[in-house]
Every structure is written in C-alpha cells, then in structure tokens.
Specification:
It is built from 2 helices and 5 strands, in the order βαββαββ. Helix content is 24%, strand content 32%. It is globular and about 35 Å long.
Length: 110
Amino acid sequence: MFCFRRKDTESGDAPESLRRLRLRFRGEVQGVGFRWTSRIVADKTGCTGWVRNDSDGTVAMELQGTNDQISRWFGGLSSSYVRYPIDYRIDEKVEIDPVSDERGFEVRFC
C-alpha cells in the first residue's frame, strides 16, 4: 500500500487539509474496469476528481481528498482487484493545487 502522509508541524487539532494528486497509471489499466472501479472506490472514500483513458494506453487521474481518504482510496483499489489481479504501476505522481468546491469523482471520455 502507498503512504502519502506528510509530517504536520502544527497542532493536531486543525482539520486535515485537502490534497490533490495528478496520477498516470500504466500497464493493464484499459479494458479491465479501472476507471469505473476508481470511481466506485472514490465514492466510498469521499475522494473527488476525475479519471480518463488516454490514447497511449495509460489512464490519467486527478485524485483529491485528505491524507486518510487518499490512503483508503489506494487500499480500496488494491482490494477491488484481489480476485482478478491486474498488472499496473503509477508512472507519474505529482502534487497539485486542490480544486475548491469539487463535488464528486467523474469518469471522463476523450
């Protein structure tokens, strides 16, 4: 499982802030329900953002949530493919600015 936690130098009383990751997945990620599974897991974990297939065979995604939500999303995605393992890797992971007022997670089409 991936861990994306940062050390918090402020008091633990403050609410956890949102983070947004730009991700690119490579491998067995098209034709296996990857986008739809991503959306289902995002809905369960409270993450927002979007996912789409790209013409080069990769899947692009922006995933937004708290550290805990993002961590649970990665765990949930892995759990979803336990019975039907797929071979994929994260080819790109970049921290970007959160999008304010985003309401959900959508599957986009090129």
